[in-house]
Design brief:
This protein is α/β, with parallel strands linked by helices and 771 residues long. 34% of the residues lie in helices and 19% in strands. The chain starts with 9 loop residues before the first strand and ends in an 8-residue tail after the last strand. The protein binds pyridoxal-5'-phosphate (PLP).
Length: 771
Amino acid sequence: MSQTANLSQIYLDANATTPVLPQAAQAAMDAMQDLFGNPSSSHITGLKAKNLMEQTRLRAKTLLGTGSGKLIFTSGATEGIQTGIISGLIKAKTQIQAGKKYTLLYGATEHKAVPNSLAHWNEILGIHAEIKSIPVDHTGELDLEFIKNEVGNALMICTMAVNNETGVYQDLQQLEHCIREQNKEVFWLVDCVQALGKRPINLATTSIDYAPFSGHKLYAPKGIGFIYIRDSAPFTPFIAGGGQESGLRSGTENLPGLAALNVIFEMLLDKDNSSFYDVDTLTDYRRQLSHSLSQAFPDIVFNHKFKNSVPTTLNFAVPGFSSKELMDLFDAANIRVSSGSACSSKVTRSFVLDAMGLPAWQSESAIRLSFGPAMTQAEIDTACLRIRSAAKALTNSCLMLDDSQVLQDRAPLDGLVQLRSGSSCTWIYADLKSKQALVIDPLPELEKRIDTLLQCQQLTPIAILDTHGHADHISGRVGLAQKYLATQKTDELGWPTETDILTLADETYHSLALGELTLIKLPTPGHTDDSISLLLTSDPHKLTTHTRYAFCGDTVLMGTLGRTNFATSSAFLMYHSLKQINRLIGQQTLICASHDYNNEFTTSLSAEVIRNPLLQAVLSGVLSESQFAARKADLDANLNDEVGSEILCGAYNTDCDKAQIKEYNSAGLKLRLSTSTNVKILDIREPHEYALQHNLDTTSEPSDIDNVLNTGINIPMTRLVQFIQEHQSDKESEWVLVCRSGSRSMVAAQAMHRLGFANVAHLKGGYALSS
Ligand code: PLP
């Protein structure tokens, strides 16, 4: 039996949802075409439908050991959770005694459907009980001591059988003992969504009052679920209407969904069935996957203990890699996994792992890999193979080191790399010919990645520099300098004490040679008194035309200027620094800042003066230094000191003008390429993603659009600034940017557009919607 007939995609995100098993899909199709009757109709077609429904209910009741409890079909677990909570709370409200304090308890790692529903109905029903979350320990197990102390005053307690992010299960017997010893009356809801088919369930032998389930987590379609209600538990219908489900849940029943569930129940009940594998096999799958993961990523950390987790969920983090990076990597390897965090807006951490007290980095970079009991050995084998290929691709793109010093698969680095962490940037310049490198503003969290890159590319840094003493973070410079430049004598920012002196237009500057290039140090105080700018040029005597990059730290930021309200700041000095930068570099020279608050990569004076009136006024000479200082003080006074945990280094304009970028869908792009020779594809995924996709072990033929996209060149986001620099004279060509989902390509296209690439476009929805 195969979970998915097509091995080209390995689906390891079963805790989010599962594909519908072919047998279940067929049953649903039959129900739509033949058994389509309304179970409430009394003619033969209706009776057949009703019979199917009752057969499904009977199977569910047998499977779950519901005894005399009720089992009602719902649209899914979220509806079941509402039903249970409303039923419990409406009854509890009638028992409330004036002056007594009550609580509603829920496990800290519960799916959000539970605490959000508790809060909602607590408010709507005017109960106003205090809602308390039950802590878990580092293994994810509920704090029984807490429950013992609190459950006496609780109207309702909600726990989960198996956690959806980690697979951690609770010992329900022990939990029941703890709850009932203190409170026989409290209504107990157990979210059993992730337990179905993975843990033994025998509901009538427990005092669980409500147990919601969902079909789409176990190979049935979305839109069908069910809830168990203990016979002695109170019940209030959540949906009233035509009286279906004996008046317990109105609305014409979802017969196709029920037909599919019926097949799943039949398989679960049949011990000899060959579609679902037993716990031993699933545990062996986990062993194989965890072994491959550990081989592929030797530093891997699993975020839960296997001993109290179902074997079908693995949650892990790899030091030095964000969950976004790993998601992109797995997607390129054609393995679907999920980031372990609740990815809503700026929330990038997992509240489940936070509740377990795991270190922040583990919670931020968690990846969840989950499969269902119909997973096949062939799929596991392919997954393991691809995990190893993914890791190999990472070593080839110098993001991970392996033991072999073989460089043949690795593209040699030549030029500028931009690494980012949050909104901060580190810049590395590699000179291929001399094998020398320059590291600017190394962030401590990127230290390992920088070190790996230098080792992997066999580069020797000539200097590791900061553009100023950073207020918002400590520099990663010292650790790297100790490793690579232990004997070099430098100032506080890492500038070597012994350097060349250059005289340009009667002014002297310190400089360093980097291969055939020259790095010039320019004191640019203002943001801080020690701020410097670093100009990398191919001809120091023609700076305006030959400066490739100006690393200006926080002096010129994209869309703004660095703040000047620190103790060591001076707006007066910044005024002169800006003028000096303007005198020395060209209007198109790319300015590489220490921060990128708005995903803009790089900028130039010509791009900045258009949108930064203060800079424009300084450079055009209409402002005196004191006028500048006054305006700057106003600007800084309105500066939001922090965004999240970051200290802002400059006021930034949140409504920065974003250009309208031309968007293609895959058909439109194909057409455009067939009619024009001046269109160029730029694949901006990271090299490992690009390599993986091009070396996949699939048997499927590349699609038309794959063939089109394969004509492109691969310029990853980390190298985009260099690409812009090298194509300053080719801004008229039509560049079409592509990536995995269309979000990176959009951001990069906007940056290019702002810097004068008039015809830049991107592929909407990226590869995800094109293949
Ligand atoms: N509870 C848990 C543990 C879940 O994993 C989910 C789904 O992610 C739900 C509840 C909600 O289920 P449904 O999608 O059926 O509403």
